[in-house]
Every structure is written in structure tokens, then in C-alpha cells.
Amino acid sequence: MKLAEIFSINVKKLLILNGWSYPELADRCNGKLSRAYVSNFRYGDRINPTLEVVDIISRAFNISSQQLLNPNLSYDKYTALPPGYFRKEYLVDEFQDITISAWEQKNKEILELRRKEGIPDFR
């Protein structure tokens, strides 16, 4: 398998894992890559990403370039977490779910505002 195909497959895996679309990935590249260019990543046989592009994409996912190009990239929910973070799953009632969802939305808005203002996140 060609390296570009591995790159394409791993980008797809990481998009699913993070719940992002190709346009969202482009937006997380801080203006370094266009949405149209990033959308071409879905076609591994049509792209030839440079090392700089691999670096930009791996930073967006908060993983190393080596991980992004690894043909055996693990496809689990823990792959894309920043160092020092972990996930937990809980059983909640409807009120707790509404509260948690509102909290998540507010935090997403805060992080998006920070990104737009150029304030680095907590990586």
C-alpha cells in the first residue's frame, strides 16, 4: 500500500474518531490548508501530501506524524486524546444528559472562540 493511501485511510479513521468532517479538519489547520485541498484526502490514489502537510494534519489531530503514517494506526476512542487526558463513560438520566450536553456545547464554543482569536489550546 502506498504511503498516500495510508495517510488517506488514517485521516478518515481520525475524522470518525473525533466526529469531524473534512471541512472541520481544514478549519483546525489554522488557515494553512484550504477546505477543497483537505477534502481531496478522501482519495488516497489522487493525493501526494508533502511532509509539511503531514505535519499540519498530525498537529490538528494532536498526534505525531509517525502515528499518522502508521499503517497499523489503532482505531480506538483513546487514540486522539491529548497527553494527560482520558475518557470515562457513565450512565446518566435525562436531566444529567441535558446538563452535560449544554456544558459540552458551551466548552466547544469557548474553544472555537479561542482558536479564532489565535489563543493556543491546552495541548
Shape: globular
Helix content: 40-55%
The overall strand count is 0
Radius of gyration: 16 Å
Largest sheet: none
Mean residue pLDDT: 86
The computed structural class is: mainly alpha
Describe the structure.
The chain has 123 residues and is mainly alpha-helical. The chain has two domains: 3-80, 434 Repressor (Amino-terminal Domain) (Orthogonal Bundle); 90-123. Helix content is 53%, strand content 0%. The protein has helices spanning 3-18, 22-27, 35-39, 51-61, 65-68, 94-116. It is globular. The mean pLDDT is 86.
Produce a short descriptive summary.
The protein is mainly α and 123 residues long.
Q: How is the topology of this model organized?
A:
Elements: H1 3-18, H2 22-27, H3 35-39, H4 51-61, H5 65-68, H6 94-116
Short descriptors:
single chain, mainly alpha, 6 helices, 434 Repressor (Amino-terminal Domain), 123 residues
